[in-house]
Amino acid sequence: MSAVDAKIVRTMCPMNCHPTFCGMQVEVESGRLKTLSGDKDNPDSAGFLCVRGRATSEIFGNPKRLLYPQIRDDRRTDIWRRVSWDEALDFMAKRMRSAGPEAVGLWAGHGGFTVGSAVTVQLMQRFAHMYGCQNWHPAMVCWGLGGFGVGLTGALKVNTKEDMAENSNMIVLWGANISSQPNTARHIVAARRRGAKVITIDVRRTEAAAQSDEVFLIRPGSDAAFALAVMHVIVTEKLHDSEFIEAHTVGFAELSSHVLPFTPAWAAAETGLEEGQIASFARAYASTRPAMILLGGSSMHKSANGWHAARAISCLPALTGNFGVAGGGLGPRHGAHSAAMCWCGRPLIPTVLWRSGVIAR
């Protein structure tokens, strides 16, 4: 193998993890991928590469990948024929003209992100605007509803994983499995070794549970109920941070009245937990400073009611004065840099709104 044929390329893992991609060192020979490994000189991932990243080599050059367009003339069969790109484009254009812009919708797939380029999605959006058809963001079946709920509450900024490792005294993994956020996992481990308490709230015992001091397994879809009962305890037992609430939030009086019916006993029936577990968690969270919540990036938001959970959970740091402090607030999760959403009507759950880019009613 000559020096001309082989080279080492530094790049980033294309697997669309959050909050950051991992550095990757790739050996290329004659234009083909030969080996890959974590880039030890990357200042963020420092050589770490999870099983997804290490499996990237199975994608490139895989004989099962579709490399050419195919058309199925009869949708009642599973018979496809290979066609040219021109024929495929003409086929789509003809169908779109026949249906009209009002009946055409574009939906970007996950592959548009895993190649490491958001340009694909941006071009689709531009085409939709020019053509006048409907366009759906792929995040709406992922973390979009969660971002919507967090944005309505006003918690638009998150703390970093490095800050969590160095400063958090409590880390709450709320529907956040570290296997889907592997680059954050080592920072959780570092915080726990330093003495931070790690708590997992989820619907099953995930990989995160193995790194946790306490685990709360709740019924699917009951995250909002759990958070409302936690707020009930914090408010009624006067565990909230009055100075922070007065200086940085609006709506506390409305929220205080709203959470009164949502007692730990009520939430126990909704979540499957014991009443004492809910109250104990609320007191521990309110009395530990700084405390950080890593809000689930996808699964907990994939329901019509999922954005209520995000809204309710993101109230907790504001109630306890954990926003704007090292090691507190919300931790790094999916799309955190773009969690801000527009104000769309009156909220269904009165919330504490952190005054940081909040749109007034």
UniProtKB/TrEMBL annotation:
Q: Check the record and name the InterPro entries matching this protein.
A: Mopterin_OxRdtase, Mopterin_OxRdtase_4Fe-4S_dom, Prok_Mopterin_Oxidored
| Keywords for this protein | Iron, Iron-sulfur, Metal-binding
Which SMART domains has this protein been placed in?
Molybdop_Fe4S4
The 4Fe-4S Mo/W bis-MGD-type domain sits at 6-64
Query: Which Gene Ontology molecular function entries are recorded, alphabetically?
Result: iron-sulfur cluster binding; metal ion binding; oxidoreductase activity
Is Iron one of the keywords UniProt gives this record? yes
Q: Which Gene3D superfamilies match?
A: 3.40.50.740, ADC-like domains, Dimethylsulfoxide Reductase, domain 2
One Pfam annotation reads: Molybdopterin
Top-rank taxon of the source lineage equals: Bacteria
Alphabetical list of PANTHER family matching this protein: OXIDOREDUCTASE YYAE-RELATED, TRIMETHYLAMINE-N-OXIDE REDUCTASE
Name of protein: Molybdopterin-dependent oxidoreductase
